């Protein structure tokens, strides 16, 4: 790709500016760990929401989303349910409130809050730290793979290195440079630097999204897209089979991609995603940047508002960009892509489209925006993981009396170590798609059972949590190394059952050893679920305690919230495809679901803060 002097200047100015901002704000983070990792619980919810949205707007994920929209059309809007993408709805409806009531710093510290401080609780504490570190290393490798592929596609400089036995490809050199720059300001400034830079990065990305949407809307006609796509590409809904026959189009090689992904039987895939999605969403956020934002909020209601605002500001602009690049590629890059045949690299559709269609000046802004997206997500993970090592291992078990200066220094070194290990794994990553499917389906499959039961079952113990998580990690790792040929989402039920077996066996290995801690957890968190014996004891000891009766309302809000989120995904796609009828229907659904959420969710948030203050005062 050729870059003008203006584009190069914009990119360099962005990198210099983001480093200056990160280091300038860093002095606020040096007070203590609470300030370093949570911003002292003083950051406003809308700043945290913008930061969280920026963290989710990663370049690797955007490249993947463009590739699946290109291949699967409107049916691709269901594929992110692999994560599941609507777990954010469960979080803002009720889990954010439950989690913020704990007043802890990390997910591992939350485990102590839930299970007490016995041997089983300590084992649980250690296993969640291990999971957090493994997942962060996996995501660093995922980001490393994505940013390297992106930079070599859009930057004109060959940075390959060959020195004797030591060699780096151009992709690896670019990835090392960008990862190092991001790590510099993140490890220096902690959460303050992360949030401040991510808010700036989000506005850059939003401008970029609007520019790409405008270019696509004004240069691509529905007829151009229709000439190269198979029948059914514009249909959102599906039957048991995918029924997209690319062999009859100018791009017959796309059919190989569908076969490799194993998504031909789309109805079965959807059932697996729904099965996994419900349980994974009840389990709550994994111990990473999303959880860190929740714990950083000032109050439980602000934690919920932060999660909802992430959806509001993220999905429409992001999918406007995704749809824009996809229709541009379909309309104008089909001859070039067709020459690759079955060897087409779908993850390069995005950078190819940037090179072809974005004008001078805007190209520099867009490239800076994508660097912002990568750096935002990468910095969020770098900030989240060291909290587990320093707060939950070093301070808890090695040096409880360590000074704040020592703890922050250890946090910096922990960040550097995790980045280094993640990059080593990134050198060996085969593809974004393989990493995405393993992270979303196999690794998280081992997380789901134990973390679902911790919310809803009174008898669940620390031993049960430990053995459930351990069985899940063993099963997911076994799948990765010994059964890579199987599609990860189809293996999820096996991993889930294996982990659930560990939970039940571990729980009944001994009695409930921390009954008082469980009662305190229930009193402060107020979850619904199977809490009968504990609920009766808490009500007997605290006459003013009112159990949570909100299961029905929460379930209703979740269903409404999923439709509300999906509307924000499909509207920009329908807009660029000029499908007026679908555009009107989904606009009406967005308005209706927004009104329902206002009435049955937003208007009840003040109750959560009142309950939290009452419990805190008592």
Protein model, in words:
74% of the residues lie in helices and 1% in strands. The protein has 26 helices and 2 strands. Strand 1 and strand 2 form a beta hairpin. Helix 4 packs across helix 7 and helix 8 packs across helix 13. The termini are far apart. About 1% of the residues have low confidence.
* Overall shape: globular
CATH C-level = Mainly Alpha
Provide the CATH topology: Amino acid/polyamine transporter I
Question: Which range best describes the helical content: under 10%, 10-25%, 25-40%, 40-55%, 55-70% or over 70%?
Answer: over 70%
Report the count of strand segments.
Answer: 2
Query: Mind describing the biggest β-sheet?
Result: 2 strands, antiparallel
Residue share in β-strands: under 5%
Which structural class best describes the helix and strand composition?
mainly alpha
Task: Give the radius of gyration.
Answer: 24 Å
Q: What is the N-to-C succession of helices and strands?
A: HHHHHHHEEHHHHHHHHHHHHHHHHHHH
**How far apart, in Å, are the first and last alpha carbons?**
63 Å
Number of domains: 1
- Biggest sheet, strands in spatial order? 1-2
CATH architecture, by name, is Up-down Bundle
Helix count, DSSP H or I runs of 4 or more residues: 26
Overall average residue pLDDT: 80
Low-confidence stretches: 32-40
